[in-house]
Amino acid sequence: MGKVNKIALVTGGSRGLGRDMALRLAGKGLDVILTYNSRQEDAQGVVAQIQQAGQKAAALQLNTGDVKSFGSFAAQLQEVLQKEFGATHIDYLVNNAGIGGYSPIADVSEDMFDELLNIHFKGVYFLTQKMLPLMNDGGGIVNISSGLTRVSVPGSSAYAAMKSAVETFTRFIAKEYGARGIRANVVAPGAIMTDFGGGHLRNDAKLQEFISNVTALGRPGVAEDIGGVVAFLCTEDARWVNAQRIEASGGMAI
């Protein structure tokens, strides 16, 4: 019998931070299942890249804001695990999928609030609930938060509030599932230049300059600054790291 690889499920793995996480996880010898919402072609490109590097990979469609779809997603996941990975369970869950949302408190609409709530908190909560029975003991969960739970930047109140909720939830997962050896941690990226929020930071030179000036390492982040931190948390090297919020922001607003 060959060595059985650990398997990580990464939501929103077709581009940006999620793509880098998926590639870094594969680089550490894990097999990867990634989800995408609409960008199937991008997701298949990541799968192909992981397979070329010698690991197993697959992509599944999932809207992380649609809790009612999680039952059929779980069934589909089990099918793919058996067929393509020769497995029945995953080892790690990375709740990464998300959207940006920027608006002053006075202008936040209920629709905007609900969309952020469904994707960033309710979806994370219930997908985790659905995946825990499909996880091996001794695995782990990594929830992606934001530097905005610590540093208050006007216009991000709703988004940041959802991320704060996820940070609290993470500590409860660690407490309730510690008996199964399942660890739960948060990675909080600082300001990162990706497609996120319609390229909110990447397309704004003034904002980049502002971020650079308040960051000890003197630049905004890029996707490649984050994936390795997530991958580390999904290895034995991090076996004693639990219920922690790890900010990867280059020392932003220290």
Concise structural overview:
The chain has 254 residues and is an alpha/beta fold. Helix content is 41%, strand content 18%. The protein is globular, with a radius of gyration of 17 Å.
Descriptive key words:
254 residues; alpha/beta; Rossmann fold; 7-stranded parallel sheet; two-stranded parallel ribbon; 9 strands; 41% helix; 18% strand; globular
Helices and strands in order:
Blueprint: E1 7-10, H1 16-27, E2 31-36, H2 40-52, E3 57-61, H3 70-85, E4 90-95, H4 110-131, E5 135-144, H5 157-177, E6 183-189, E7 192-193, H6 196-199, H7 205-213, E8 221-222, H8 227-233, E9 245-248
Parallel strand pairs: 1-2, 1-4, 2-3, 4-5, 5-6, 6-9, 7-8
Q: Do you know the CATH topology?
A: Rossmann fold
State the helical fraction: 40-55%
Measured distance between first and last alpha carbons: 50 Å
Biggest β-sheet: strands ordered side by side in the sheet:
3-2-1-4-5-6-9
Give the radius of gyration. Answer: 17 Å
Uncertain runs: none
Could you name the CATH homologous superfamily?
A: NAD(P)-binding Rossmann-like Domain
How would you classify the helix and strand content by structural class?
alpha/beta
The counted number of beta strands is 9
Task: List the domain count as a whole number.
Answer: 1
| Beta-strand fraction estimate | 15-25%
Shape descriptor reads: globular
- The CATH architecture category equals 3-Layer(aba) Sandwich
If you average the pLDDT, what whole number results?
96
Helix segment count? 8
Biggest β-sheet, characterized? 7 strands, parallel
Element order: H for helix, E for strand: EHEHEHEHEHEEHHEHE
CATH class annotation:
Alpha Beta
